[in-house]
Design goal:
This protein is α+β, with helices and mostly antiparallel strands. Helix content is 35%, strand content 18%. The protein starts with 30 loop residues before the first helix and ends in a 24-residue tail after the last helix. The model is unreliable at 4-12 (pLDDT under 50).
């Protein structure tokens, strides 16, 4: 709650923004309240849909890719698995009544500590809400529950010749994808979640169920509430239904790869392609360090692809046979103008899948590789995004800084929209150096008119950098929105920005 006396510098009692120091600490229910809440939740969803084993509580606090770890006392009291919107609403009403924090959970693949239960509370896992509710083939949209994975969704849409465009890491579910506004390798053609969510149903902190809009692509009907909840990381409401844009699956899609000696040449190639107005379905960059890792980890696989260790661009290109042929030639010419070599084109489903699977699983490949070469190696995955023209400079400076600190890295990028991912690899005694280079990478992105995260989100991990990017007044405005919708500060506390001026949480890395 706000302190009783709250005046700005000109003596007005109320302001549009909320400075963290104008707040008192949130007041949550005690253990007796927690027990009452759990008993009431059990009556709503049944004992079989409540999990409280130590393994379940840990899984719903952390994952193997998340560098930002929960502290030992940061576990939910229980994991609740509702099956309907109404059950989610009832759980929220109960938690609101007893002032128990709520942590929405959908997929659990995020890597910035998004679902760490910093105030304990109830984890609301929507994985049982995994249905496709309606496919509007003629309107190119689909209505889904939040627990369905994007890969499973696309498998079902294949029969219609349609697809959902966003493709983050394997295992991601729609609810979490909406909450983090993720994207993936297809973003340069199909956009991020912000561009692909038409409408949402959301359960607010007090259990109120709202619908943000109807299905038309075009609407001028007041506040863009859909956009408000996309990227809100579970801090404003629980996503319980989403209406999503669909796209016609590209005709005759092929995958092309091209090597480059210098990463600057690869990045300039992409800029030149876009400046010529050439449409590509996806374009990805993997640097020579990443390719060395992939080559060493796959070279002994019988019948597998033999990868070069040079910088690599991967393209998805599609269209009618005539248009595709023209696109391939134009892309090839621009690659050659920038000293690209070793063009390969994959047309079979098996070969295309093998190449793109290598890109989609590079994080785990890199982590396994790191453990081979550094005893007890640690790996810190992070991302930033900058204007595409700044990408070569930011990549070069980031890699140089990491190596100057005696650490290793691999770099991949959704180069079509300026989003780069660096995996910082280091021995346990170099944690301080890793923290330094990650911080400098984020600051470097901001200095180049970029953002602290292109698609991973803020969570706990990037929270302290947000003011540097957006300014204090903008972050304080976000806090005001949070307090308007969640005045008790129950929903996913402590994510994106601080909600407690007296917070004393110690980061666990």
């Amino acid at each position: 709650m706000r302190k009783t006396i709250f005046k700005n510098e000109v003596g007005n009692e109320y302001r549009s923004i909320t400075d963290i120091n104008s707040l008192e600490s949130p007041k949550y229910g005690d253990l007796s309240d927690v027990k009452k809440a759990i008993n009431e939740i059990e009556s709503v969803i049944g004992l079989e849909n409540i999990k409280d084993s130590s393994s379940e509580l840990l899984i719903h606090s952390d994952n193997s890719s998340n560098f930002h770890k929960p502290n030992e006392n940061e576990r939910p009291y229980i994991v609740a698995l509702p099956s309907t919107i109404e059950q989610v609403s009832e759980i929220a009403k109960i938690c609101h009544r007893y002032r128990i924090p709520m942590i929405p959970y959908s997929g659990g693949t995020s890597i910035e500590g998004h679902f760490i239960p910093t105030r304990r509370g109830i984890c609301i896992d929507v994985s049982k809400m995994d249905k496709i509710l309606a496919v509007h083939e003629d309107d190119l949209d689909v209505v889904v529950q939040p627990g369905i994975g994007w890969m499973e969704l696309n498998e079902e849409l294949d029969q219609y010749g349609l697809m959902f465009g966003c493709d983050p890491g394997p295992g991601a579910e729609i609810g979490g994808m909406v909450a983090t506004s993720c994207s993936g390798t297809n973003a340069s053609r199909y956009g991020t979640m912000k561009e692909n969510v038409i409408s949402l149903k959301v359960v607010l902190a007090d259990g109120t169920i709202i619908k943000t809009k109807n299905r038309p692509r075009k609407s001028s009907n007041g506040y863009n509430l859909t956009g408000l909840f996309v990227g809100s990381e579970g801090t404003l409401g629980i996503i319980v239904e989403a209406t999503l844009k669909l796209h016609v699956k590209p005709e005759n899609e092929i995958v092309a790869i091209m090597n480059f000696n210098h990463i600057q040449e690869a990045a300039k190639t992409v800029t030149d392609i876009f400046k010529k107005g050439i449409v590509v379905n996806a374009v990805e960059l993997m640097d020579d360090r990443q390719m060395k890792c992939i080559r060493e980890m796959t070279q002994d696989i019988e019948g597998g692809r033999q990868w070069s260790d040079k910088n690599l661009l991967l393209f998805k290109l599609g269209g009618s046979p005539g248009a595709l042929k023209d696109t391939v030639e134009r892309v090839k010419d621009i690659c050659h103008q920038n000293n690209g070599f070793n063009l390969e084109i994959a047309t079979s489903t098996e070969e295309k899948d093998e190449i793109w699977r290598t890109r989609k699983t590079q994080l785990w490949t890199s982590i396994d590789w790191a453990k081979r070469i550094i005893p007890n190696a640690r790996a810190w995955p992070t991302d930033v995004a900058v204007p595409v023209s700044r990408l070569p400079k930011v990549i070069a400076e980031t890699v140089a800084d990491i190596e100057e600190h005696g650490l290793m890295t691999t770099v991949v990028g959704h180069v079509g929209d300026g989003n780069i991912h660096a995996l910082v690899i280091f021995p346990p005694d170099k944690l301080a150096a890793a923290e330094t280079v990650v911080g400098k990478m984020v600051q470097r992105a901001i200095a180049n008119e970029g953002t602290v995260s292109g698609e991973h989100g803020v969570g706990i991990g990037k929270r302290d950098f947000l003011v540097a990017e957006l300014g204090q007044a903008t972050v304080d405005t976000m806090r005001s929105v949070k307090l308007a919708l969640d005045p008790l500060r129950l929903l996913n506390p402590d994510k994106i920005f601080k909600i407690d001026p007296f917070e004393k949480r110690v980061e666990n890395c």
